[in-house]
Amino acid sequence: MKVILQREVDKLGAPGDVIDVADGYARNFLIPRGLAASASKGAVKHAERLREAHEKRQQVAVEAAQVIADRLNSTPVRIQAKAGEDGRLFGSITLHQLADEMEKIAGAEIDRRQIHLAEPIRSVGAHEVAVHLHPQVDATVAVQIVAK
Predict the structure, then answer these.
(1) Is the pTM of this model over 0.85?
(2) Please, which residues bridge with residue 141 across strands?
């Protein structure tokens, strides 16, 4: 059965895509949940408008994420933490702390789940942190940990 996706569906496509799926999958899952509509002649024109609108939204989202990435890449993040004399922190720097400091620099909301740490930050000094802002945009942020 040919259907037109109304919303983005994982592993199927984006809004406005005309795809061929099993009849039962379309009738019992996609159409009742409002994820797709059956493909008729008039619906195909509507699908083209949906696809264009989705592409515009995606382009705006990529541009906004790129602006945030540029801000994060250009300015290092400084965090003060309690540390011993050997430079090891009492505890570690949490994703919440990193997200809060990055939000101040970026001027936009950054979710802690967007921040990827290879290992917890437990020492004073410079560290590199990866931030996944958009499927097409990543940023590498320099984090400077300073002892109180």
Answers:
(1) no
(2) 129
* Maximum CA extent, the chain: 73
Residue 118: CATH number of its domain: 3.10.430.100
Q: Which of 84, 89, 90, 110 is nearest to 99 (CA)?
A: 110
Token pair for residue 24?
A: 């039962």
Q: Which of 39, 66, 93 is the last residue of a domain?
A: 66
Per-residue pLDDT tens over the stretch 59-84: 999 999 999 999 999 999 999 999 98
Whether 56 contacts 48, CB under 8 Å:
no
Query: Cα–Cα distance between 127 and 129 in angstroms, integer?
Result: 7
Last residue of one domain, picked from the residues 18, 46, 66:
66
